[in-house]
Design goal:
This protein is of the alpha/beta class and 383 residues long. Helices cover 44% and strands 19% of the residues.
């Protein structure tokens, strides 16, 4: 069936906008060549994008040998709309504001007790965004979307399908609906580790990596999977729920390698060796950086369990790279080295590698900027 003119227009404008976004400061003639479009089609569709405000004309190039009008450079308007990002976890919520070129303009950790009433939590979060926008002199009308990053499985209806009970103080308070009404702007939800995986692929130190597993370890254990440059979500959008893997004794992987299991294991080792056995995670971080023998013993043993799970994931999906993030990135080298050694013990001819996150705790924020920008532009072009 033939596509109608409006569909062709939308497709062409999407292609043009993507090309202008990736090649900031490009001429119409170059766009026509790059996209194999006629010059009249490029001119007509670019004029629409300029009138919408998404594309801007900036500067002039050299005129041709035959004279005539000098060509004008086309640039993407990164301030056409702004993005608000909200990260929810067991620790402090983090609010951020960015533009459509993923520039982080403002970041604020919010001091609010997770045990206060739902209305107080929502009020504090909304006020933080209001203050940040005022400081940046950005009117609310320029806010294109709010992206919320949180643990749990997010369903196709953009609602939380499942979250562990420990996260309910944030997942069950109607925050999405509250912010949508407060700012009169769309609000989207996404899994926190999924966003970190997108952030690493798009903004990490090696943007050529198109197949990776981003694993986050801390209070919980999860992963995000990028396959052939695309997010792999699975049938129920639950791909990457690494914490639900079964270990050899029937426990969930999260019970063994998550922060609770990690501390229990290390404290058991300490007590068995006649040492004080009530170490906190901060204590473990400090001792691991000081190469404490008993703490490193526990980290190595937990690392072997996690390494086996990650190795199996990599072999199953033929993914060569694991990027390691979350709270455990602060630990000394013993854990990561143990994971790496376990992943290298293989009869498989291809051995996956593991490396620390380049974006560290900012990975999820940049990931939310990426999906939010795509959602804004799709909405503006009527996709």
């Amino acid at each position: 069936m033939k596509a109608d003119s409006s569909t062709i227009r939308i497709i062409n404008q999407k292609s043009l906008l993507e090309a202008i976004y990736e090649n900031d400061g490009i001429y119409k003639t170059a766009l026509a060549t790059l996209l194999n479009l006629s010059k009249p089609s490029v001119s007509r569709n670019v004029a629409d994008l300029i009138s919408m405000g998404i594309v801007e004309e900036k500067g002039e190039g050299e005129s041709t040998k035959n004279g005539g009008r000098k060509p004008t450079m086309l640039c993407f308007n990164k301030t056409y709309r702004y993005i608000a990002s909200l990260e929810l976890s067991l620790k402090q919520p983090v609010c951020a504001i960015g533009d459509l070129k993923y520039n982080l303009l403002s970041l604020r950790k919010i001091d609010v007790d997770r045990e206060v009433c739902a209305e107080e939590k929502k009020r504090v979060i909304a006020e933080a965004f209001h203050e940040m926008l005022r400081e940046l002199e950005i009117p609310i009308s320029k806010l294109g979307i709010i992206a919320i990053s949180q643990p749990g499985i997010i369903g196709d209806d953009n609602k939380v399908f499942y979250a562990e009970t420990i996260h309910h103080p944030w997942t069950n308070i109607g925050l999405k609906e509250y912010l949508q009404a407060e700012f009169d702007t769309p609000v989207m939800l996404e899994n926190d580790v999924t966003l970190a995986a997108i952030g690493e692929m798009t903004m990490g130190f090696d943007k050529q990596i198109q197949n990776l597993i981003y694993v986050s370890c801390g209070y919980g254990v999860g992963s995000g999977i990028i396959y052939n440059g695309q997010l792999f979500e699975g049938y129920n959008r639950a791909a990457g729920e690494l914490g639900f893997f079964l270990t050899h004794d029937g426990k969930r992987l999260e019970e063994v390698v998550g922060m609770g299991g990690l501390l229990d294991h290390i404290n058991d080792i300490m007590v068995k060796n006649g040492c004080k056995g009530n170490l906190s995670f901060e204590d473990v971080v400090e001792k691991s950086l000081a190469n404490d023998e008993l703490v490193n013993q526990g980290l190595k043993e937990v690392g072997r369990v996690l390494g086996q799970a990650l190795y199996n994931c990599c072999v199953m999906m033929d993914i060569p790279t694991v990027i390691f993030g979350g709270d455990y990135i602060r630990l000394g080298s013993a854990l990561l080295k143990s994971i790496e050694e376990t992943m290298q013990q293989s009869h498989f001819p291809l051995r996956p590698t593991i490396q620390k996150s380049g974006l560290r705790e900012a990975a999820g924020i940049f990931g939310s900027f990426v999906i939010a920008k795509d959602a804004i532009l799709q909405n503006e072009l009527g996709l």
